[in-house]
Amino acid sequence: MSVRYLSCGDTAFSVEFGNEISPTVNGRVMALHAAIGQAKIAGVVETVPSIRALMVCYDPLTTSRAKLEPEIAGLIARGLPTELASRRVAIPCCYDDPEFAPDLGEVAERTKKKPEAVIAAHLASAFKVYVLGFMPGLAYIAGLEPSLYLPRRPQPRVRVPRSSVAIAMDMTTIYPFESPGGWHLIGRTPLWMFDQRREQPVFLAPGDQVAFQRVDRKGFDRIAREVEAGRFDWATLVRKT
Q1: What does the alpha-carbon distance between residue 56 and residue 46 come to, in Å, rounded to a whole number?
Q2: The pTM is what?
Q3: CA torsion sign, 198 to 94 to 100 to 158?
Q4: What number is the average pLDDT over the span 199-203?
Q5: Which domains does the chain have, with CATH numbers?
Q6: N or C: which end of the chain has fewer CB within 10 A?
Q7: Spatial distance between the Cα atoms of 1 and 16, rounded to a whole number of angstroms
């Protein structure tokens, strides 16, 4: 296993496992993230996982990179687990309303599919959350069916509605807030990916396995009302593995 250590200022360094986006590389990142947490290494303030690297932040009054790097190298040398406990999360998504899926027709045309085939491929994709970024609650979810791979839109939108489901490259994402965005919009979920009223405001987490479930506009509206009123039972969407 090739591992590279890079300084990130004077209170953090990065442990890199590779240069590509892959389940293997991200799995090693998440395994080290869990191993450091379990080891409770003195001086480590937090670890921040990304797609291919783990940032280790430390208290310079307690420890240093020179002390931490051998300890972390030892954890890696002893072997990182390949199978970690995770959550299976179901995300309801409505693809049927043109307001929700303004790019579905274009995606179908560019991938030489019918719109229903695009939807079927998205539903069949084996998705996993790799990292959170860009804004609170926005998950980069890899595993998109290869036949749907497209680059980002050449002209980003100034406003993408909250809870829009979008694809680009080999990923899908869900916009937690209205914001600019350049991904292709193919649906919308009635869920809020960030809600400060919840005990854990951010719904998805790195390592989650995600499956989209199709709902019609009637089902979308019903769930949306429950979410907005704070009555929705989020536990029904999650199963631990």
Answers
A1: 6
A2: 0.86
A3: positive
A4: 95
A5: 4-77 (3.30.1360.40), 87-240 (2.40.100.10)
A6: C
A7: 11
What is the three-class DSSP state of 216? coil
Taken as a whole, the chain contains a residue count of 241
**37-53 confidence digits (pLDDT tens):** 999 999 999 999 999 99
Q: How far apart are the first and last CA of the chain?
A: 27
How far apart CA 50 and CA 228 sit, in angstroms, is 31
Cα distances (angstroms) measured from residue 193 to each of 66, 173, 180, 205 = 39, 10, 16, 10
**Taking Cα atoms as reference points, which of 7, 83, 63, 69 lies closest to residue 36?**
69
pLDDT band at 59 (very low <50, low <70, confident <90, very high): very high
DSSP secondary structure of 76-117: HHT---S----EEEEEEEB---TTT-TTHHHHHHHTT--HHH
The average pLDDT across 68-88 equals: 86
What percent of the chain lies above the pLDDT cut of 90?
86
Give 207: exposed, middle or buried? Use CB within 10 Å, 0-12, 13-18, 19+.
buried
